Amino acid sequence: QQEKEDLQRKLKLSEHLSQTASKSEATLAPSKNIDLEMRQQQCKLKNSNNEIAKQLATVKSLKKEVQEKEERIRELQAKISRLERDLNMKRHLIEDLRSRLKTSQQNETTSNDALESLERKVKALAEDCLNKKAFIDSLKQRLNEATKEKSEYEQMYHKAKDELEKKDLKLTNLENKITESECAMTKLETTASQQLCDLAKQSEQALETMQKKLLLNKDKVEEFTTFVKALTRELQHSIQELRTKIKQAKKMREVRAYKKGLSQESVQLAASILNVSTTDLEEILEVEDDEETAKTKMESEKDKEWLQYVQKLLEAQFPFASYLMDAILEKLNEKKKLVEEYSSLPKHTV
To answer: Which of 19, 50, 64, 320 is most buried (CB neighbours < 10 A)?
Structure first.
């Protein structure tokens, strides 16, 4: 409808320009050259008037088509008003259309302002034509401007025609969609009720199975953590036992070597001097030095740190399997080295 009004305004402007041009032709001074040029220009104006008349006829036919489509649109709006009662879910689409209407109204105001400015310009041009009737050059320039405007109007006419064809296609598509939506709504109502019942049953069964699986997974995780903790403790305990055995074997070897270097009499003499028995003297000789005690403390601290590290890995987020494997392999390698060291000691020392 807005494009129709714009075309009517533009046709009025073109008629006004043709009238002003015909008035300017009547008041020109009589001369041969001017008559020839004016005849040529009159022919051009007649041609343009004929074209404008054709365009007016086409615009009238388009008006009739638009009126028919408006009646069709009214019928469709009546159908849509009936469907709106059942289609509450599509209100957000109406809000979008309202926002588009606001933007179109703003564009209409801007276009109206532009048309008013164009009307003012046309009035100014008409006054200039009345004041400058004697100058043919100005008439030629204005005729050129009129031809340019005519080409623009023709382009706008073609655009309006194309847009009307597009709107026809949209109207047919809307009619088809409305009929399809009416059929689909009835089907959706029946299928949705059935699907909701099935989904409710399936969701209840799935929740029960998921709860059972979660309980089983929790039990498995607890068993795994207890297994890992017991394994680490056993590893640490076995490593500590191997260390103590190696230390005892080394001490026994040193004591026996010391006893071989000393004679029985010197041992008894040292025991009598210290006022202790020979067995007590052997225990005194087996006392650890400061370096050994520091070393044992360091090893025990490392074992504690290792246990804390394993505990942190178990409490950490996934994935931690590779880090846990590295930590246990490190301890197993240490145990392997201790076993090799213990087995390398002579059997008579053990």
So the answer is: 320
